[in-house]
Design a protein that fits this description.
Blueprint lengths: L4 H19 L5 E2 L11 H10 L1 E4 L5 H16 L26 E4 L33 E6 L1 H4 L1 H7 L2 H11 L4 E10 L7 E4 L18 E6 L9 E3 L11 H4 L11 E2 L7 E5 L4 E3 L8 E9 L7 E4 L5 E4 L1 H21 L22 H8 L10
Parallel strand pairs: 1-2
Antiparallel strand pairs: 2-10, 3-4, 4-5, 5-12, 6-11, 7-10, 7-12, 8-9, 8-11, 13-14
Helix pairs in contact: 3-5, 5-8
The structure holds 2-oxoglutaric acid (AKG).
The site of 2-oxoglutaric acid has 9 residues, from β11 and β12.
Length: about 375
């Protein structure tokens, strides 16, 4: 029989407390810091390499944070009522209903839509515990907003953040390239689980596989990320190749014993290795979590690669596609400069000198930004 919200919260309490304690002893959090040569401070790269994630504290300041929160809140009000609908709760066209890839992904509250199924290339083999929602819960809730850069200008501006792009350069080289962007929403008492998985799909069998092959995701936190609502990760698994997740959960079900939560304050940004085992539980706490996600790869991991997408289709990432998709970095830098003119913008070297054609304006919004995510680079 399924647990109630209260029973689930109670059944998690000790695990959450112990995991949070372990997380805070990992010495993998602090402000973004660079050495004089522009490389990331070795304390950061060492901790990231040891743990598979790092929490950059205090990256997003209040005015920008408020912008992001307001825009995400507005987007949720304009979400369709179901995955099949193009109308919001008030019968208006939902946000982005004209886009090629529907931006909103709705699921059953406190559910786990992919765990234990063959969906998403079967990379979520174990179903998480799915408590029964309260009787007044909506039948569907937004779990993910995809393609954030064409519907949420605040996310586009964040994507151009100079500190974060400098980190991406330090990690993946000056010719780093995009992955995709998505906002994960965990509403209090409703947010669904994301079953344990490793994101990476393409290079597991490569003789050149190393801990950075499949890139990383930034997860910018708009609210506190607590043990109860956070993404959890099994430290060190990013260096162990493709793992058998079923065997990790054999001993204690979905509560993997050495996993830790990504504990964050609002404005912190997690850098998470895409090869690490991670997931999140149904949110039976009283607190929101909203993570604004965007990832970057090494160029060499992407160009010339044929990837089988999560929907089963195969696609070749040639130089032209990668270059066109990378224009979103340059456009985001300009969108940010328009809002924060006193900030020194990041210079994205692959498109240096092409600033005029990559400015953010009516024309590029329509011709480049709209439906940009048809060119996402999943590996
Ligand atoms: O935010 C979450 O709950 C899950 C995020 C995740 O699994 C991912 O970004 O790959």
């Amino acid at each position: 029989m399924s647990l109630t919200v209260k029973q689930h919260a109670e059944s998690m309490a000790v695990y959450l407390q112990e995991g949070a304690k372990r997380a805070l002893t990992l010495a993998n959090r602090g402000p973004v810091r660079f050495g004089s040569d522009g490389s990331l401070h070795p304390d950061i790269t060492d901790a990231f390499s040891r743990c598979g994630f790092y929490v950059f504290t205090g990256v997003i300041e209040p005015p920008e944070l408020d912008d992001l929160k307001d825009e995400v809140k507005h987007a949720l009000e304009r979400a369709p009522v179901s995955n099949q609908s193009k109308l919001d709760r008030q019968g208006r066209p939902s946000l982005g209903s004209d886009l090629s890839i529907p931006p909103f992904y709705l699921v059953s509250p406190l559910g786990d839509p992919v765990g234990g199924t063959q969906r998403n290339a079967g990379r979520h083999p174990v179903k998480m515990v799915t408590p029964t929602p309260e009787t007044d819960a909506p039948s569907q809730v937004v779990q993910v907003i995809f393609g954030t850069l064409h519907i949420l200008d605040s996310c586009l501006r964040l994507y151009g953040h100079p500190l974060l792009l400098k980190v991406a350069e330090a990690m993946n080289g000056p010719d780093f390239v995009p992955f995709n962007e998505a906002v994960f929403v965990k509403q209090p008492g409703l947010g669904a689980a994301v079953a344990w998985h490793q994101d990476a799909t393409t290079h597991w069998d490569s003789p050149k596989l190393d801990e950075g092959t499949h890139g990383f995701n930034f997860m910018a936190q708009l609210y506190s990320s607590t043990a109860a609502n956070a993404v959890w990760i099994v430290p060190g698994t990013h260096k162990q190749g493709k793992l058998d997740i079923s065997s990790l959960t054999e001993a204690s079900g979905d509560k993997i014993s050495d996993a830790v939560p990504m504990i964050c304050e609002p404005g912190d940004v997690v850098m998470c290795n895409r090869q690490a085992v991670h997931g999140s539980f149904a949110n039976t706490s009283d607190d929101w979590r909203v993570s604004v996600g965007f990832g970057f790869h090494r160029k060499e991991s992407v160009v010339g690669v044929t990837a089988k997408l999560l929907n089963g289709k195969s696609v070749l990432y040639d130089e032209a596609r990668v270059r066109e998709r990378s224009r979103m970095i340059a456009i985001a830098i300009d969108a940010r400069a328009q809002r924060y003119p006193k900030e020194k913008p990041y210079l994205y070297q692959p498109l240096a000198g092409l600033e005029a054609q990559n400015s953010f304006n009516k024309e590029t919004r329509e011709l480049v930004v709209k439906n940009y995510n048809l060119l996402d680079l999943h590996i």
